[in-house]
Specification:
mainly alpha; two-stranded antiparallel sheet; 4 strands; transmembrane helix; Azg-like; purine nucleobase transmembrane transporter activity; cell membrane; transport
Amino acid sequence: MKELGTNVKKETLAGITTFVSMAYILFVNPSVLGESGMDKGAVFTATALSAILGCLLMAFLANYPIAIAPGLGDNAFFTYSVVLAMGIKWQTALAGVVVASIIFTILTFFKIREIVINAIPHNLKLAMAAGIGMFIAFIGLQGGGLVVASKSSLVQLGSLTVPTTWLTIFGLFVTALLMSRKVPGSIFIGIVATAILGLVTGLISAPSRIVSSIPSMKPTFAVGIKYLGDVNTPQMWAVVLVFLLVAFFDTAGTLIGLAQQAGLMKNDKMPRIGQALMADSVSMLAGSVMGTTPTAAYVESSAGIAVGGRTGFTALVVAVLFGFGMFFSPLLSVVTTQVTAPALIIVGALMAQSLKEIEWDKFEIALPAFLTVIAMPLTYNISYGFAFAFLIYPITMIAAGRKKELNPVVIALFFVFVVMLYVLNVLPSK
């Protein structure tokens, strides 16, 4: 901690801030997967336990202030694309997640993921960090009601007549003022102040009780293993491939962005990345057995990093709080999207600072970097940001006469993303 200019107090505050920012997954994941027919109570417990395992592994294996929990994109793909659109039983779909998790862990063990991440060009790493910042800021603006969907223009300013939107505005102003005054723990203070205002004004309902029992995982535990024999069709293997690719690049982009934000990159490489990737892989495999979709490194970890988190102690605190959250789930309902939205917007602004280091004067770099940044929020998917980068970067570099600077991994990724986009967008329509 001393080497990284931090201490137990800072790390604890960072862990609390990260947990508060991502606690919504305890409720959102069961809600989304519940629509596929899965038992919500079992998914709640599986979500918490897979997050606890992932965070503990990240703390003790990799020593990074990065939290792990089931990812939002994967659960939406599982329910809406695989189960509801393709008509595949949730049990079979979960078996697909188990298969993807096994392959994922093997790729990590043989350091293939580590090789890919280290081969990503410096300018694209900077663009990915900024893109993730834009993405989480957009999530915050949307969750807070400041930006809403529009049929004519896709998005538009939210209505200021909605009372809960003013919670976000209040939290944004309070946090911005505290940040400008360089008050320690500004983001966490802003979250607490917004939650208190919501309770006082009645915009956030006070919990009816404080403690609740932990739901059983019996309805989902090991179901994916029991249905492994159903993963025997081209359609299911396409599903497995999507889970694998999205999990691979979502976490890769998030880890790079967060390490960049925390100033932990050394010689353009992330130290102990193999351990960080193994923590992610093992928690993904365990989560699939318990009954939830793939885990991922959480972009909300950036809120804790902004508060000062630099070591695995931050992730350890998040794990402990997820453990408490299993018993005190009614209290977590106080942390609404309007409460966490200001934190995400502020952190988005902080992560966008990496834009200043990109070589914008060189078009062959500027275009793929720009597309990386805007693709993440506009497609609502970190993986698509990667796709835009690696589909354009090799072409512009070759056109600029810089073919020798392209390493084999970058060329391989060009073809990987061609396949990924085909699987994601062409196969489902056939």
